[in-house]
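Figure 6 in text form: structure in, sequence out.
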């Protein structure tokens, strides 16, 4: 990109030895945040899982700056948060982009280069690998789990478990718990589709909207406490 060409020449002149040492090469894309320079494995072998450095450099685009070419004064580092996080004490975990930490670049040029190099060395490289056995894929289930876990202590489901089954419809990941009356409650999240399915002791209880974790948490609390009539507010037959 011509707009950042001179900045990238400066960057390579200063950082190329570090990139070689860390086995990194640059890639560039434009997104909502501006022009992103990100870093992937130097190997030319295709990585279908898109492993990459957690550090990116963002330049504000021409429309934001009004400048002819990009400026280090209108650039910053972004450190991606992409670590696996446990789902309570279930033994399951989930990994995804949780957000980014944005870091201003020092105004002094020498301090800036040292700052960039230090972050390359200290921030993790993100290995995107095939899904391990105990990794949950369904983001809606994960968000619902955390929403249920945030419910006030008196209404919290103490033994909230997770189950995964391979079915004729594909992989189904579920939240499973026992209600106050000893019934097994299962909330199924399918790999595709906006509707989950609820079961009580193996019998269908209706479907629910997987996109609203707060509604799923309210549904789970209602089923856990045995308030089936209230639970129907969140279910569709």
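Output sequence:
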């Amino acid at each position: 990109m011509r707009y950042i060409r001179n900045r990238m020449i400066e960057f390579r002149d200063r950082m190329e030895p570090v990139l070689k040492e860390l086995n990194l090469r640059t890639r560039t894309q434009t997104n909502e945040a501006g022009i992103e320079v990100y870093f992937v494995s130097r190997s030319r072998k295709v990585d279908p899982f898109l492993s990459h450095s957690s550090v990116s450099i963002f330049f504000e685009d021409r429309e934001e700056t009004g400048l002819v070419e990009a400026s280090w004064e209108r650039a910053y580092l972004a450190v991606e948060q992409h670590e696996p996080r446990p789902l309570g004490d279930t033994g399951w975990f989930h990994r995804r982009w949780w957000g980014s930490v944005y870091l201003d670049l020092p105004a002094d040029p020498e301090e800036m280069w040292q700052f960039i190099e230090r972050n390359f060395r200290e921030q993790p490289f993100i290995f995107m690998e095939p899904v391990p056995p105990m990794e949950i894929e369904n983001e809606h289930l994960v968000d619902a789990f955390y929403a249920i876990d945030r419910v006030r202590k008196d209404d919290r489901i103490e033994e909230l478990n997770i189950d995964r089954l391979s079915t004729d419809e594909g992989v189904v990941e579920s939240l499973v718990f026992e209600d106050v009356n000893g019934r097994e409650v299962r909330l199924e999240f399918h790999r595709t589709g906006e509707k989950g399915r609820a079961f009580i002791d193996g019998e269908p209880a209706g479907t629910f909207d997987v996109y609203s974790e707060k509604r799923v948490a309210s549904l789970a609390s209602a089923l856990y406490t045995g308030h089936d009539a209230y639970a129907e507010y969140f279910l569709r037959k």
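Caption detail: The two ends are 54 Å apart (CA to CA).
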